[in-house]
Amino acid sequence: MFSQTVEYALRAAVALASDPTAAQRVVDLAPATQVPPDYLAKVMNQLVRTQLVRAQRGRNGGYTLTRPPENISLLEVVNAVHPLRRITHCPLNLRAHAGRLCGLHRKLDKALQHMEEALAGSTLAEMAAGVDGVKPLCDHTRQTELIHVA
Amino acid sequence: MFSQTVEYALRAAVALASDPTAAQRVVDLAPATQVPPDYLAKVMNQLVRTQLVRAQRGRNGGYTLTRPPENISLLEVVNAVHPLRRITHCPLNLRAHAGRLCGLHRKLDKALQHMEEALAGSTLAEMAAGVDGVKPLCDHTRQTELIHVA
Questions:
Q1: Which of A23, A49, A121, B11 would staple B33 via disulfide (CB 3.0–4.6 Å)?
Q2: Residues of B with CB below 8 A from A138's CB?
Q3: Which of B104, B135, B146 sits opposite A95 (nearest CB)?
Q4: How do residues A104-118 score in pLDDT, each as one tens digit?
Q5: Chain B CB contacts of A126 below 8 Å
Q6: Do the chains contact at B145 and A100, CB–CB below 8 Å?
Q7: Which residues, in sequence order, are CB contacts of B74 under 8 Å at separation 6+?
Q8: Which of A104, A105, A127 to mutate to test the interface with B (most CBs of B within 10 A)?
Q9: Given pLDDT bands bounded at 50, 70 and 90, which one contains residue A138?
Q10: Of the candidates A2, A93, A101, which has its C-beta nearest B108's C-beta?
């Protein structure tokens, strides 16, 4: 249901939120987020285009969030890469359903609304802070952190 | 968030639920669901493979639901074509997150759980019956039903 790009964008955004004043490059973010660098570069471009992230060139450059992570919701990150589209009109363009969806599309839209509310209600700062002592993402200085997958 | 295939599968399943004893062919279902016939044939194959739908060959053949539409949830149709995968383990395979997800993945899974519950709580029969006098899908005998889209 969440695309790979959404998952990767959220990881990158949380990594930036973990140290919001530090400019982080793809080479810094890739090990922490476990995202392939080429893919990550494309995701970062999308986040820059939608103005959630700023890219600073040069020797001390890198990516930073454009706003405090307390003010950026998960929904904004999702919408930056794969917008969550609510069902606002009949997908079959039926005249009889203009202005009032049928039960099926009403139900699907309600499910999307719940999803939207869940994502809008959480900020990058909350995610970066961790829950019950569980911090997100990798501390990539530790070699033993990844579970060995055969 | 819902793929085109999910949308089409739900329309086809609701069309079958609207007349559960009648075998309907792709040529019958395509106008009612407004799904391109080739795409619809592939979707029907997926519904047959996952045993939600039975295909009967021959002159009076066609597709029927394998169970009463009162007993088939929207979630089952979604899962037949694009399974809604909950997040049951850390997508980064982090040892520290085995058994307890970080806040980000806990939040995403919670959003998926809400979506799952919304879809599991509605049946094809309810969708086919319509809500507030609004019936789903096209009555394709009426030429004027579609809104003209320029």
A1: B11
A2: 92, 94
A3: B146
A4: 999 999 999 999 999
A5: 103
A6: no
A7: A104, A107, A108, B10, B119, B120, B122, B123, B124, B127
A8: A104
A9: low
A10: A2
- Inspect the interface and report whether the beta carbons of B136 and A100 lie closer than 8 Å: no
Give me the helix-helix angle, B4-18 and B26-33, nearest 10°. 110
Give the ipTM of the model, two decimals please: 0.85
Class of domain A4-83+123-129: mainly alpha
Chain A residue with CA closest to B115: the answer is A111
